[in-house]
Amino acid sequence: MLPPRRSEYLFRKNFKCHLFQSNSIMCIHNNHVNKGITIRIQNEKLYTECSVATMQANEVAYGLINNATIAVRNGRIEWVGDEKSIPTSYQGMQRESLGQRLVTPALIDCHTHLIFGGNRAHEFEMRMNGASYEEISDAGGGINSTVEATRLASDEELIQGALGRIDNLISEGVAVIEIKSGYGLTIDHELRMLRIARHLESLRPVKIMTTWLAAHSVPKDFKHRLDDYIDQIAITGLRQAEKEGIVDAVDGFCETIAFSPSQIDRLFKVAQSLNLPVKLHAEQLSNQNGALLVAQYNGLSADHLEYLSAKDVKEFSKSEAVAVMLPGAFYTLKETQVPPIAALRSAGVDMAVATDCNPGSSPISSILTAMNMACTQFSMTPEEALKGTTICAARALGLQGNYGVIEAGAQAELAVWNATHPAELTYWVGSSILHKRIFNRELS
Ligand code: NIG
Ligand code: FE
C-alpha cells in the first residue's frame, strides 16, 4: 500500500524545508551552505533586475533579454520584456529583485527510469573489466537484475530511493520529470511503478509525467515468447493503466536484446487506439529502424539514436518527433558511436537532452551534467543543450507552450541562477549554480 498523501515535503537528511502557504507560487531557495530549501507562495509578482533566457524561438540566442522584468499572476507568466517597457497595469505589483541574476525556464528531464530497487555497481565493475552491456544482459543481468530488485523492494523503499534522485534534480532547477515503468514486467508490478510515480508528485514540488515501458525487457518466464509478452503483459497492462488514468505516454525498447519493430508496432497500435502518444528507445545499440517507426506514428520522441543513419534522419525529420539525446548512457557504456547531431541539426529536428537516470546505463541524476556531456561528448552547442532541457524537452513530453519557455501564458516555473550568461549552465561541472527555483502548484 502507498503511504497517505503528505502535505509536508520530506527532504533528504541534509535538506531543510520551510513551507509558507498562502497562494500558489512557491520559491525553492537552494542555499549553497546548508542546501536549505525555502518555499514561499505568492499570488502575483514582478520579478525585476535580471536577465532572462526566455528560450522563445526568435533570432536572439537563448531568446535572451537583458535588464528584464517578468510579471506573474496566478501561476502564469503574464508579461516578460525589457524593464523600461513594463505595462502600467503591472507597475503596482509587489516587486522582487533577482539581483542581476540569470533566469531560465525551470528545467525539464524528459527521460528517466528513476524508480528502481538496488543498484548495478557490480555490473559497472564487470564492464570496466571488459564485459559488454549485451553480454551482461544475455547472462541474466542488466535490466532483469533490476527487475528482480524492484519487485522485492517495498513501496516505501522505492519511494525513498526515487526521492533522493528527484531531490538532486530539483537542486539543479528541474521542475518537470518524466518517469518510466519498465522494472516490473508483470502487469501488477508495472502498474505499481506508475502509481508510485504519480504519488511522488504529492511529495515534492515537481510535475511528473508517467510512461508505460512494459516493453523494456523480456522477463525469464517469457523467454522465447516475446509476442506473448507483448500481448499478455505490455498490451493488456497498458489498457489497465489507461483505464486507471496513470499513464501519459507509451515507450518500448526496440533492440536485438529486447523487442523487434513489429512487436513494438503492435503495442503502438493499441497506444494510438487509446489516444496515448508514443516514444521509443531507438537505435541505441544497433539500427533497428525504430526512429522511423516513431515517425510513422508521429510520436513524441525517439531516444538515444547513436546508430541512426543519415538517410533515416531525413525521413525522421518529416515527423514532429523530437530526438532525445542521452549522453549519460553513451558515457557510462563507453559508447564510441556518436548520434548524428550535425545531420539532425541541418534537418531541423528538435533535440532534447535528458539524464536517462537508471541503475544500469546511466546512474546519473544531474541534468546539468547531462547538458555538459551533450556539449563535450556530442558537440551540441550550449544553446542547443539548454533548449534540450527546456523548450525541446517540453515538446518531447507534449507540454509545449506551457513549460520550458518564458512567455505570456506559460506556467510561471522558473530557475534563477548565480550566473550572468546561459552558457554557464553547461560550463560548470559538479557544482549547482542554482540560486532558487520558482515553482507553481496547488498544495494538497
Ligand atoms: O535507456 N535501453 C534501455 N533502457 C535503459 C537502460 C536501463 C537499464 O540498463 O536498466 C536506457 O539506457
Ligand atoms: Fe532510457
Structural features, described:
- Helix content is 32%, strand content 23%.
- With 444 residues, it is an alpha/beta fold.
- The strands form four sheets. The chain has an eight-stranded mixed beta sheet with strand order 4-2-18-17-8-5-6-7, with no helix packed on it.
- Helix 5 packs across helix 6 (187-200), helix 6 (187-200) runs parallel beside helix 7 and helix 13 crosses helix 14.
- It is globular, with a radius of gyration of 21 Å.
- It starts with 16 loop residues before the first strand and ends with a strand.
- The model is unreliable at 1-41 (pLDDT under 50).
- The structure holds N-(iminomethyl)-L-glutamic acid and fe (iii) ion.
- The site of fe (iii) ion has 5 residues, from loops.
Write the layout of secondary structure elements.
Layout: E1 17-19, E2 25-29, E3 37-39, E4 41-42, E5 44-53, E6 64-73, E7 76-82, H1 88-91, E8 95-105, E9 107-109, H2 121-128, H3 133-138, H4 143-152, H5 155-170, E10 174-180, H6 187-200, E11 207-215, H7 226-244, E12 249-252, H8 261-273, E13 279-282, H9 290-296, E14 301-304, H10 310-316, E15 322-325, H11 327-332, H12 341-346, E16 351-353, H13 367-376, H14 382-388, H15 391-396, E17 414-417, H16 424-427, E18 434-440
Parallel strand pairs: 1-3, 5-8, 9-10, 10-11, 11-12, 13-14, 14-15, 15-16
Antiparallel strand pairs: 2-4, 2-18, 5-6, 6-7, 8-17, 17-18
Residues 113, 142-143, 146, 253, 281, 284, 329, 356, 358-362 line the site of N-(iminomethyl)-L-glutamic acid (NIG).
Task: Flag low-confidence runs.
Answer: 1-41
Count of helical segments?
A: 16
Largest sheet: 8 strands, mixed
Strand coverage percent? 15-25%
Instruction: Label the overall shape.
Output: globular
How far apart the termini lie comes to 20 Å
